[in-house]
Amino acid sequence: MTVRICPSVLNADQNNLAQEIERVKEVADFIHLDIMDDKFVPNFTYSFEQTRKIVKQSLLPIDLHLMVNEADYWGPQYATLKSNGVFSVTVHFEATKDLSQTISLIKAEGVRCGVAIKPATPVAVVKEILDKVDMVLVMTVEPGFGGQSFMSEMMSKVQTLRSWIDDKDVAHTWLQVDGGIALATIDEASASGADTFVAGSAVYKSENPAGIVEELRKRALASRR
Ligand code: DX5
Ligand code: ZN
Hints:
The protein is α/β, with parallel strands linked by helices. The chain is built from eight helices and eight strands. Helices cover 33% and strands 19% of the residues.
């Protein structure tokens, strides 16, 4: 199993995002960019146009996490930023009406498609789409803000998904966790079966972001199942 580390720049210096991204460019796999609309979550980050500029300047491919309403519309829209450097677009299950069609439209743009579930959403809702989707994101905090505590109780969802993914032989489906991932929590998430890790404050509140990314990867590899 490969381990992927995706630093989230939500709590990085917003006035120097390109430089913040550059600090981890040798060691991170992707940059995780959180798009919030102040409706799906009580916080706002970037407009579509601002996102396009950030993506364009980034030295690493972008893993977009859409925390917005009307994801059936916005998912495929953001997927058109592939030529600017978007690698994957993740929509929230709770914000879609026609998930299967939205997955198809996103993939039709040539980007990978992820589906995220909030802490209160049961894992069963993604069972039937596991072979259509490229990644499932299990939120390990309530979406909206960085710096919250990791919710260990979400690990049963990760374990269930890992067993479904392995059973169905859909090994191409990545299993991502987002929220509270740090040196103290990544072992548990990796041991539960996650392979793709978002870390925001752990990376950018540190004096040495690249060093933390390397250490996170080391720990995830050491405790993977
Ligand atoms: C929260 C975002 C996360 C956030 C994680 O809604 O989706 O990506 O940046 O931040 P930390 O790692 O600080 O929990
Ligand atoms: Zn996120």
